[in-house]
C-alpha cells in the first residue's frame, strides 16, 4: 500500500472509510463492549441509564478500536487489551459528559445531551463514576507502565480542557496555543490508546513511540477537521449544531486564521462575535463568509493533511498487512470527512 495520503482510495474507487478497521476488530470489540456494559452497571439506576445514553449513542468508538487495531498490528494474542480498551472508552465518555456541561451543549451525535435530559449535576457525577471505573480497569491490568500512560493522558486531557476554557472568547489566541490545546484535549488519548498496545505486547520502546506518534498525529488531524467542519457542515452531518464553536466563542484554527488575515473591520466583528455579542444566525453566516474569503478552511484542512501524513509515516517501520492498511485508511478517513 502507498504510504502517501490521498482523498480517494484508488484500490476501491471509493472515499476512505473506517469500515476496514471496524471489520478488523469486530470480534475484539464485542469483548470490549461486554466489559463496558458490565462495568457501567451500578445499584444506583441513574448511573447506567445516563452512561448508557451516551455509550450507546452511535459513536464510532475510534479510540478503543485504535487500541485493538494496534494490538493486531503487533500480533498480540492475549486478552489484556480488552479491559484497557474499555478503560480508554470510559475516559473518553467521561470527558464528553463533562465537556457538554462546560459547553452547555444540546446535541451530541445527533441526540439530546445527557445534561439536557438529566441536568448538569448528574452528568458531572456520572462522568466522575466512569473515570473511576476506568482507573479500576487500569489497576486490574497490573502494569504500572500502562497505569502511568493512561493516568498521564487523563491529566493532560483535563489540562487541555482548562487551557481551552481560559482561551475561550479570546480571538487573539495564537495558533501555537491552539495546537497545544487540541494536542492535549484530543490527541493525548489517541496516542495513549495506541501506545498501551505495545506495552501489553511487550514490544520495544521504539514501537511504543511509533504508535504514540501515529495516534497523536491522527488525533490532531481529527480535531483540525472537526473544527473546520463546524463552519462548513450541518447538524445532520456533524451530530451537533452547526456553529456551536462559534456561539461558544471557541478560538479554533479557522477563526484564528480568519482573524489574522482580516481587515480592521473584520477584526472588530470577530472580537464582538467571540465575546458573544454577535452570535445570531446572520452573524454566523457572515463568519462563514469571512472564513471562506480568507481561505481559513482550506489552510486548516491543509494542516490536517500534514498531521495525517505524519501519522501514516509513523507506521512505516511496521510490516504490511490488514491491520496496517486499516490503520492507514483510518487516517485518510479522518481527513476525508471534510470533503
Q: What's a quick, concise take on this entry?
A:
The chain has helices spanning 19-24, 26-39, 46-55, 62-73, 80-103, 114-118, 120-141, 144-167, 175-200, 205-229, 235-238, 244-247, 253-261, 264-274, 281-293, 296-314, 322-336, and strands at residues 107-108, 111-112.
Helix and strand arrangement:
Blueprint: H1 19-24, H2 26-39, H3 46-55, H4 62-73, H5 80-103, E1 107-108, E2 111-112, H6 114-118, H7 120-141, H8 144-167, H9 175-200, H10 205-229, H11 235-238, H12 244-247, H13 253-261, H14 264-274, H15 281-293, H16 296-314, H17 322-336
Antiparallel strand pairs: 1-2
Strand proportion, as a percent range, falls in: under 5%
CATH fold-level assignment = Farnesyl Diphosphate Synthase
The termini sit apart by 22 Å
Number of domains: 1
Looking at CATH, the homologous superfamily is Farnesyl Diphosphate Synthase
What is the total tally of β strands? Answer: 2
Radius of gyration: 20 Å
Give the CATH level 1 class: Mainly Alpha
Structural class: mainly alpha
Order of helices and strands: HHHHHEEHHHHHHHHHHHH
Across the major sheet, the strand order is 1-2
Uncertain stretches: 6-10
CATH architecture: Orthogonal Bundle
SS summary, helix count: 17
General form: globular
Name the average pLDDT. Answer: 91
Task: Characterize the largest beta sheet: strand count, sense, and whether it forms a barrel.
Answer: 2 strands, antiparallel
Helix percent reads over 70%
